[in-house]
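Page 42, continued from yesterday. The earlier attempt failed because a stray header line got pasted into the input along with the sequence. Redoing it now with the clean sequence only.
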Amino acid sequence: MEFVKLNSITAFEQAINAIDSESKLVVCGEADKQEYIEENSEFDNRSTEEIIKATSQVDVPQWFASRKQQYLEEWQLDLAEIEGEWPGEIKEKMGFTLANDILSGKPLNDLIGAKLPAKHHWQLPAYFKYGGWNECPEAATQCAVWKFWEEKYGAKIVGVSTDIIEAQVYDPPTTQAEAMQLAWQQYLYCNDIVDQGVETIANLAATLINDNCWYFWWD
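This time it went through. C-alpha cells are written below.
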C-alpha cells in the first residue's frame, strides 16, 4: 500500500478514473488517518491473499439472513418501526465526504489516498484488513459483500478511512422494491447509517434510488 497526497477537488474523480487500472486509487481522508489505517491492519494476522481466499467461504445471502436473525434476537428489533414508511425518492444525494472537512464541508488541504495493486475493487478490504471491530464485519466478509454488490450493482469502493467506506455505483436500484431490498442489506452490513443516521430502512432506500454514491460509517 502506497500513500499519496491528493487534491481534494479532483480526488474522487482520480479514484473513479483509476477503476479499470491495475493500480486502484482509494481516497483516505486527512493525512493523520494514515497512522490509524496502518495500525488497524495489524490486528488481522492473515495475509491479503489469505483474506481474499477466505471470501469464497462466505455465502452472502445466508450471511444477511443470519445477521438479521441475530439482530432480531439480540436487539429485539421492531420490524415495522425500523422499516418505516416510504417517503418517496429523495432527490438530493449526499455525494462523497472523505475529501472535505466533516464540520465545515470545506475541501481538505491535507488529503491523502492509497494506491493498491488489487485486481478487483471488492478485494480492497483485504488490503486494508478492514473490519472486525464493533459491528463492522471482518475483512473476508467485507470482501464477499462487496463482491456481491459489485456484481449486482456495479459498486466500486473508492474511499476508505478508519471508519468510513464510500463507493461509486454504476447500476443503482431504480424502483422502490429494489431499493428496499438493498437498504435492508446495507443496514445489516452497517446499522449505524440507519440507527445513528437516516432512522429507518425506508428513508435509506429513498436515498439509494438512482444514486451513484454509497456511504457507510461505523461508530
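Notes: The CA atoms of residues 165 and 216 lie 5 Å apart.
Reminder to self: strip header lines before submitting.
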